[in-house]
Inverse folding.
């Protein structure tokens, strides 16, 4: 009987203990679950702040360059620029993995707390009991907190991606559209390479960024590997950073890639008067621009010195020095600016020897990228003109220093070179300039030429094949009569600025309305 009473008492006591434990567990489970959820969220927050138990590995500019940042492969000849990637590009993945590892570590620490070695018997059983009875509530709360954290993070990432993508699209679209309307590009005066987007050099560490446009390395701004903040559009970068050639890494003219870029080669026979036309044309163009309220300036010292030298020759009436043969020309670049736009005009004046033979002009890459060309004809090389210069006019021939090449041959060699290099001459313009007209104003057989009927006069002079070939090859051909002596006077019909002014207009920067010139 006593044993039966003891057994009942033990049973009742066990049931009481179980009931009490069940009540305690039931009462504590919501708090434990809340603690589990809070722990999961705290671990995630500390990880994002870089203070969690599992710190994420930082994606650095070296990872971007080395291809270990998890970004898609770069297309093109250059690796990705050394810059910090946007958080939404690479770092978020490493942060997410660190958060998952932090949550796993939370479970591992609970397991070690309950079942780790070196614990006393009663303490061990207490911890085991806590984990066994309260662990499910804690793990359930932690799972719920993790799920809520993941859901919140996914929503934030999705909205951030949408906003980031929209910012990239807007910035890039605005940049492309405005530069397209301006006909902006960048051309190198050293290697003649033409690019739509220049490279830019960081002003702090001098690192070159080959693609500054909005993208994976930044939407509105990008951070260079040195920490310097850089603008991400060509329009903004052109005002703050030094532009470089993508091919030879030489500095480009100021504003390259962001303003209208017009490239005009001048070609013709040896000693035809190309260099003098360029000098006289620039001097007259400066005066025309000033009259139209346009500021003409030079963005590099080489171009400025070339202009000043040419101006001295034109104003003094001195003879022009022959362009050295065999030397590739550097562009003379003029910056034209007005209230509603800017343009860079690049003039290329190569020695006439380059245009005598097809093999000699293979290096003249600037011909391939020209929107319009100026073909210089010396009338004193035309046989018909020489036949007219008899008697008292014989001395006029020596005074003219006639060119030493056939203009028709020079034209065909150059046109064939353009076609061989895939240049669509049918989309280009050609200005044909008959120079040295001041020596012909007093002869009756040149009256039509001096009056402006250049095309008809050339046909009369026997260059009909040249005229027809030019009009067949090019989209538009316009003929000009030029005098580097008389034409420098304002409003004169023989102005040497006329060919360049016409090509400026076709290139997207019209220099005022053409006015009726004064009689010759």
């Amino acid at each position: 009987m006593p044993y039966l009473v003891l057994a009942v008492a033990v049973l009742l006591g066990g049931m009481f203990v179980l009931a009490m434990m069940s009540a305690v567990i039931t009462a504590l489970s919501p708090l434990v679950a809340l603690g589990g959820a809070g722990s999961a969220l705290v671990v995630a927050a500390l990880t994002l702040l870089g203070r969690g138990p599992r710190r994420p590995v930082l994606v650095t500019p070296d990872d971007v360059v080395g291809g270990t940042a998890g970004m898609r492969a770069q297309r093109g000849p250059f690796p990705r620029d050394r810059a910090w990637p946007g958080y939404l590009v690479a770092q978020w993945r490493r942060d997410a993995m660190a958060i998952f590892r932090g949550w796993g570590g939370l479970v591992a620490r609970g397991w070690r707390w309950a079942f780790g070695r070196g614990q006393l018997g009663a303490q061990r059983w207490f911890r085991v009991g806590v984990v066994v009875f309260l662990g499910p509530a804690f793990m359930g709360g932690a799972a719920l907190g993790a799920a809520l954290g993941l859901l919140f993070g996914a929503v934030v990432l999705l909205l951030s991606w949408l906003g980031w993508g929209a910012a990239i699209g807007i910035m890039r679209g605005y940049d492309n559209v405005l530069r397209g309307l301006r006909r902006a590009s960048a051309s190198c005066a050293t290697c003649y390479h033409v690019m739509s987007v220049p490279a830019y050099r960081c002003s702090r560490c001098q690192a070159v960024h080959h693609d500054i446009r909005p993208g994976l390395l930044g939407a509105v701004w990008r951070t260079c590997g040195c920490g310097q903040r850089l603008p991400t559009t060509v329009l903004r970068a052109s005002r703050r950073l030094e532009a470089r050639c993508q091919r030879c890494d030489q500095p480009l003219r100021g504003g390259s890639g962001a303003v209208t870029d017009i490239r005009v080669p001048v070609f013709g026979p040896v000693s035809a008067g190309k260099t003098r036309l360029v000098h006289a044309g620039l001097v007259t163009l400066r005066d025309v621009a000033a009259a139209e309220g346009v500021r003409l300036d030079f963005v590099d010292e080489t171009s400025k010195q070339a202009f000043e030298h040419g101006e001295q020759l034109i104003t003094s009436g001195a003879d022009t020095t022959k362009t050295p043969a065999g030397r590739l020309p550097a562009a003379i670049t003029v910056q034209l600016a007005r209230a509603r736009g800017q343009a860079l005009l690049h003039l290329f004046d190569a020695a006439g020897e380059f245009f005598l033979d097809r093999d000699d002009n293979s290096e003249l890459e600037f011909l391939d990228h020209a929107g319009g060309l100026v073909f210089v004809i010396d009338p004193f090389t035309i046989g018909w003109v020489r036949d007219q210069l008899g008697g008292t006019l014989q001395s006029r021939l020596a005074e003219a220093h006639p060119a030493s090449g056939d203009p028709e041959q020079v034209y065909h060699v150059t046109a064939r070179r353009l076609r061989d290099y895939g240049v669509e001459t049918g989309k280009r313009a050609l200005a044909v300039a008959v120079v040295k007209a001041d020596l012909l104003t007093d002869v009756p057989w040149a009256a039509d030429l001096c009056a402006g009927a250049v095309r008809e006069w050339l046909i009369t002079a026997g260059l009909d094949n040249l005229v027809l070939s030019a009009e067949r090859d090019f989209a538009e051909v316009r003929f000009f009569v030029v005098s580097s002596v008389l034409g420098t006077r304002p409003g004169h019909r023989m102005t040497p600025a006329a060919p360049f002014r016409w090509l400026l207009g076709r290139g997207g920067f019209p220099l005022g309305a053409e006015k009726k010139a004064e009689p010759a």
Summary: The first helix runs from residue 2 to 48. Residues 516-520 have pLDDT under 50 and may be disordered.
